[in-house]
Fold:
Amino acid sequence: MEHVPVLLDAIMEMLQPAPGRTVIDATFGRGGHTRAFLERGARVIALDVDPDAQAEAEKLSREAGSDRFRFVRKNFGQLAEIVAEEGSVDGLLLDLGLSSPQLDRAERGFSFQQSGPLDMRMDPAQGESAADVVNRLPEPELRQLLRDGGEDRDPGKIARAIVRARPLRTTEDLAQAVIRATKAPRPGSKHPATRTFLAVRRAVNREGEMLDQALAAVPKALKPGGRLAVLTYQSLEDRVVKNWIRDHAEEEKRQPGMAFGQPNPARWVKSLGEAVPSEAEISANPRARSARLRGAERIAS
Ligand SMILES: C[S@@+](CC[C@H](N)C(=O)[O-])C[C@H]1O[C@@H](n2cnc3c(N)ncnc32)[C@H](O)[C@@H]1O
Structure:
């Protein structure tokens, strides 16, 4: 399945791409959002760790020209380095999670709906695969990983079932271990291995850590007046983004002990609110179902 960019109009409105403005698309994927930024005249610097995303970006680079579009095969956890080289920008997009081709290609090992090697690396040349992680970790650490990374309801039972099923080699091995510990999948309800797959994927790609590093680089990444847009697909990540905006956004009320009119240096953004896909978008693109967009603007000072 082609990747359909999610909340495209809301993101364009939030980041306002235009001639003379530069946007970092930190999760290029198949370039859905990048193409729309380019069509509106902005310059785009795009990042992704996935080799297939790089191949797509190379095609786009030939179309758009290197003065308007540059792709860097880097992790957005390295955003600070990229900004140090490229300078600060007018817009920054993080569209977290997986692209449709990553999910659909069985050999990438992301999906419990398809039988494939238990891999789940966004960059298949880097680090440990999902099989390495679930076969190596001692049971208490596995339990912790399932609890923290996917909020699994019964991480103890699932961790025990995984340890008993070792060695796990395929996505089916992991899905079956979870089913044995919990219940059989039922049509129309969420697959019992959903949270387990999410937790393992997050651990394999160090997703929490990379998001924290990217958010820490936002003050340097954005020019005054520059805007951040983050699309998340699950509550754990949405909470991180929501709290980050809340912790850095200007408050209506003055802080106790602050002199009148003096800005608080820890609060340097203005929240731009949130958006979710309409019913029409979800019926056209069911993978947008759980998406939530949040935005913030760096206060001009
Ligand atoms: C949801 S897709 C983005 C889709 C894109 N906005 C589009 O419309 O085509 C997420 C992409 O981010 C990439 N990605 C995830 N984590 C990353 C990270 N830490 N650094 C760089 N790229 C990452 C994935 O490889 C995937 O291609």
Notes: The longest strand covers residues 222-232. The chain has a mean pLDDT of 93.
